[in-house]
Amino acid sequence: MKKNILITGGAGFIGSHVVRLFVNKYPDYHIYNLDSLTYAGNLENIKDIEKAPNYTFLKADIKDINQMNTLFKTHQFDAVIHLAAESHVDRSIKDPNAFIETNVLGTANLLNAFRNTWQDNYTDKLFYHVSTDEVYGSLGKTGLFEETTSYDPQSPYAASKASSDHMVRSFGNTYGLPFVISNCSNNYGANQFPEKLIPLFINNIQNGKALPVYGDGQYTRDWLFVDDHAKAIDTIFHQSELGETYNIGGFNEWTNLDLIKILCELMDEKLQKPKGDSAKLITYVKDRAGHDRRYAIDATKLNKDLGWYPSVTFEEGLSKTIDWYLENTKWLDNVTSGSYQDYYKKMYS
Ligand code: NAD
Ligand code: TYD
């Protein structure tokens, strides 16, 4: 079926994998990738598909309601897959308002533009909102986040994503806007900006720089390979009932320190360094303010209802990810020049 699909944030990490999957897998869909190209957006991430006949890039800012209304009117998007966001917790601690503007107001702008276009006649239409497990807050030693877990966001980033989830549900309830939401755990893989743990540490090991471990390193995250997240979004987009929420996770919990140790071992092997060399760079630094202790997702509903399960083990995914960064040094050099150096100094010196 022919459809115009808007994917926001498609020049970022996860968005680029989703755009590629949809452009290649669905020749009948026209994919519009809307991105304002912040520090985290990079057209190099999707260079391989930029000339595809079913692909158009739109440089635009979701904070600008007039721009959104015009683009929606022009292209009549049947469906939206919304990933554009400010996405890094540490940046949200330094500048919360940027997160409120893009994540809350930007999402409301898209919802309003979608309503304005379809005038509340929504046959075969869908607004898919991509969110995070961080909306649920922090877990103790046991327990898992389920779709019914109460929201309890603890960082400005998490609070802004929680607000955007609430806006989407409220438009569903009030105006009958057809939506689905997924809340995913920590992603890793190719093209992730090196401010997040795994690419930051790969880059630092390559450059012989300290590996800054926040606090005691005993914080726990559930890691999912980014291609598996993109496949889950494809599955939910095509198979979910309207109004549903799905948690997406890797069934793959690690403390930061255990993960870092494996990463160091793999880097020693791949860079042919003496065993234990990379781990010598581990440096304990001041903890992140309000640091969530543990995230863990129960993705059983997605598995039972729609048959999705991660396809890649953590060891495979991590190995592929490291190989990608070692093979794409030019990409890393480009994104770590300029403003990245200022960010790094402010964060870590
Ligand atoms: P990212 O920071 O790599 O990419 C975000 C993209 O959005 C960039 O291309 C950026 O240019 C664009 N963008 C930012 N502000 C914009 C604006 N005002 N207008 C238009 N475009 C704008 O983020 P990511 O890690 O790929 O995350 C994508 C989505 O997935 C986010 O909504 C995030 O909350 C969610 N998520 C991320 C993770 C994760 O581990 N990275 C986990 C779960 C959910
Ligand atoms: P991050 O990749 O920023 O994702 P999130 O905060 O969304 O979970 O961080 C993952 C974990 O790694 C988190 O517990 C914070 C920790 N961390 C460090 O110890 N050092 C760092 O330099 C960074 C960026 C993160």
Describe the structure.
This protein has 349 residues and is of the alpha/beta class. The protein has a domain at 3-188 and 223-248: Rossmann fold (3-Layer(aba) Sandwich). Helices cover 43% and strands 17% of the residues. It is built from twelve helices and twelve strands. It has helices spanning 13-25, 65-75, 89-94, 96-118, 156-175, 197-206, 226-239, 256-270, 300-306, 314-327, 329-335, 339-348, and strands at 3-8, 29-35, 55-59, 79-82, 126-132, 179-184, 186-188, 211-214, 220-225, 245-248, 253-255, 282-285. The chain has a seven-stranded parallel β-sheet with strand order 3-2-1-4-5-6-10, with helices on both faces. Strand 5, helix 5 (156-175) and strand 6 (179-184) form a beta-alpha-beta unit. Helix 2 (65-75) packs parallel to helix 4, helix 6 (197-206) packs parallel to helix 8 and helix 8 (256-270) crosses helix 10 (314-327). The longest helix is centred in the first third of the chain and has 23 residues, at 96-118. The protein is globular, with a radius of gyration of 20 Å. The mean pLDDT is 97. The chain binds nicotinamide-adenine-dinucleotide (NAD) and thymidine-5'-diphosphate (TYD).
